[in-house]
Amino acid sequence: MFMSKLILETVNLTLKIEDKIIFQNINLKIEKGTIHALIGVNGCGKSSIASVLMGLKKPSSGEILLEGESIVDLSITERAQKGLTLAWQEPVRFEGLSVKDYLSISRKTKNEKSIKDALESVGLISEKYLERFVDDTLSGGERKRVELASILLMKPKVAILDEIDSGVDFIGIDKVLDTIRKIAQNGSVLLITHQDEFLKIADKATLICNGNILRTGEPQEISKFYRYECTYCVDENNPDLALEELLNVNR
Ligand SMILES: Nc1ncnc2c1ncn2[C@@H]1O[C@H](COP(=O)(O)OP(=O)(O)OP(=O)(O)O)[C@@H](O)[C@H]1O
Ligand SMILES: [Mg+2]
Asked: 3 CA distance to ligand 2 centroid (A)?
């Protein structure tokens, strides 16, 4: 029997809010066990794609397939039960919930050691953090790391990580990178990022421009194109025309 290599696929996924196209005709193909980076300038549509994948927003049209099955009509909870998870761009915040309890919810084993290991994996000393609260008494970077630890424990089929690196200091970045690699040992990762360092651990990258996929391919190649050749969209006087030109050039 033919087994697809794809874990998550979108087919012509489109989101319009009122008359505004937030993104259109997104055809993403995420392979099993891989890290797929999603990059692009502020406001190009990355977080909106993540929200629609997780079910927080309904697409205007298009399909989302998880292991070949449509999940587009499923609720957030049903998608989570099928193994999809999303770490928001904004750091998590749960008033009154301790780090220990938050991580206990997500772990799949009853082993307390695994919680400690997950915290250490993201570079947080467990003795210092287990009794702290997942609220704004933890810094944004700390909450980002706690959330990543929870995803490591959760072992999702697909983890969508929306700028999990934002606010994490440069020493912590290596720990975050290692943890993302560990998550990808059990599943796949859609990694939304602005950092080149994160592209280095990706197997593939997709560049979004004005809500369209501009290119998908080898991360370093995509990054180089984004940095040095992707200049058409900067034409603020006529962004749509510039995008059309760019899409034609790169087709
Ligand atoms: N509810 C909404 N109504 C109108 N416009 C919206 C709405 N939600 C998002 N947008 C717009 O959609 C575009 C894409 O936003 P999105 O948050 O997906 O960008 P992004 O690529 O994640 O950017 P960043 O890198 O800054 O996080 C932006 O121009 C944003 O203002
Ligand atoms: Mg965003």
From this structure: 33
User: pTM for the whole thing?
Assistant: 0.90
CATH of the domain at 171: 3.40.50.300
- Which pLDDT does position 235 carry in this prediction? 44
Please check whether residue 197 lies inside any domain of the structure: yes
Judge whether 139 lies within some domain: no
Q: How far is the CA of 43 from the centre of ligand 2 (A)?
A: 7
Give the per-residue pLDDT at 232. Answer: 57
Q: State the SS3 of the chain.
A: CCCCCEEEEEEEEEEEECCEEEEEEECCEEECCCEEEEECCCCCCHHHHHHHHHCCCCCCEEEEEECCEECCCCCHHHHHHCCEEEECCCCCCCCCCEHHHHHHHHCCCCCHHHHHHHHHHCCCCHHHHCCCECCCCCCHHHHHHHHHHHHHHHCCCEEEEECCCCCCCHHHHHHHHHHHHHHHHHCEEEEECCCHHHHCCCCEEEEEECCEEEEEECHHHHHHHHHHCCCHHHCCCCHHHHHHHHHHHHC
> Which residue among 15, 19, 22 has the greatest number of ligand 1 atoms within 8 angstroms of its CB, and so is best to mutate?
22
Domain holding 25, by residue range, is: 6-89+156-236
What does the pLDDT look like over 120-175, one tens digit per residue?
A: 999 999 999 999 999 999 999 999 999 999 999 999 999 999 999 888 888 889 99
Q: Provide the pLDDT for residue 247.
A: 56
- Please check whether residue 193 lies inside any domain of the structure: yes
- 46 in contact with ligand 1, CB cutoff 6 A: yes
Q: Is the CB of 211 under 6 A from ligand 1?
A: no
User: Relative to the CA of 50, which ligand 1 atom is closest?
Assistant: 18
Q: How many domains does the chain have?
A: 1
Regarding the beta carbon of 98 and ligand 1, being less than 6 Å apart is answered no
32 found inside a domain: yes
Query: Which residue stretches of the chain have pLDDT < 70?
Result: 1-3, 107-110, 231-251
